[in-house]
Design goal:
single chain, 278 residues, alpha/beta, six-stranded parallel β-sheet, three-stranded antiparallel β-sheet, 36% helix, binds adenosine monophosphate
Length: 278
């Protein structure tokens, strides 16, 4: 089947109408696609997949990289053709945020703390655009990467709270050979920075291993050691290394419930995030 690029919500709904019977899955992205994104498309299996490509201005603060964010629609289309995606939704900003737009969706619970402490605008932008994308396509299923673990929980909460008819599915993190999580922002890294970046996942693995050995109450020390290790291997700043409840991101006191270690750290001007099971 030929790939259709829809530019408006009306075009998208028309394109999806005859395909709904067999199920529709959506994969929201900001483009500059890599194998991590394509793994989400594969995880949708069997259903008609719509991939949205939209660099969402409301999730960037004025000092962040909205203008520099990599954009390559033709390259993205070529990649999506290789995995048989039938529909791309690539709206202009005016389509998503028409003149006079005045609505913001905010999610508490998993949307508080961690990323919010450093990017206070971020999840309101994400939740608003994801709500719009899901309402535009009304998919049975939407697939989000565990790479952005807090975002996955925020979107799950949003879908439940608003009663959206979409099952939110998390998909595993796709990584480079040295463990660096694939990310469109990895393109910003110089060769030297790229070598440092490969340590983020290794440090998280060490933190998780130590946490499993730690006595009660030792988890905060494990986090602090993780921060120190990241600085020692060359990260310029560390926003957080945090061991949290895998379901709701509450601070873990022990490992009685499944936990996840999450981190955000910068090399030069590039901020990287990663996480893994403890
Ligand atoms: P982005 O284009 O960075 O906004 O990401 C779009 C979707 O792809 C989100 O659900 C991300 O979590 C997911 N994603 C990004 N990188 C990866 C990765 N390395 N592995 C799995 N999913 C990813």
């Amino acid at each position: 089947m030929a790939l259709t690029v829809c530019r408006t919500i009306a075009e998208l709904r028309t394109a999806l109408a005859p395909l709904r019977r067999d199920g529709v899955a959506m994969v929201p992205t900001m483009g500059a696609l890599h194998d991590g994104h394509l793994s989400l498309v594969r995880a949708a299996r069997a259903r008609t997949v719509v991939v949205s490509i939209f660099v969402n201005p409301t999730q960037f603060a004025p000092h962040e990289d909205f203008d520099a964010y990599p954009r390559n629609l033709d390259g993205d289309i070529a990649k999506l053709e290789t995995v048989g995606t039938p529909i791309i939704f690539a709206p202009a900003a005016r389509e998503m945020y028409p003149e006079g737009f005045a609505t913001t969706v905010t999610v508490g619970g998993p949307g508080t703390g961690l990323e919010t402490d450093f990017r206070p605008h971020f999840f309101a932008g994400v939740a608003t655009v994801v709500a719009k994308l899901l309402l535009a396509a009304l998919p049975d299923r939407a697939i989000f990467g565990e790479k952005d673990y807090q975002q996955l929980l925020v979107v799950r909460r949003l879908a439940q709270d608003l009663g959206l008819p979409t099952e939110i599915v998390g998909a595993p993190i796709a990584r480079e050979a040295d463990g660096l999580a694939l990310s469109s922002r990895n393109a910003y890294l110089s060769a030297g920075e790229r070598a440092i970046a490969g340590n983020l996942n290794k440090v998280l693995r060490d933190v998780a291993a130590r946490a499993r050995e730690a006595e009660d109450g030792g988890l905060r020390d494990c986090e602090a050691m993780g921060v120190a290790e990241l600085k020692a291997v060359g990260f310029d700043s560390v926003d957080y290394v945090a061991i949290r409840d895998a379901q709701n991101l509450a601070v873990s006191r022990d490992l009685a419930r499944p936990a996840r270690v999450l981190a955000a750290a910068s090399i030069g001007r590039t901020r990287l995030i990663d996480n893994r099971e403890v």
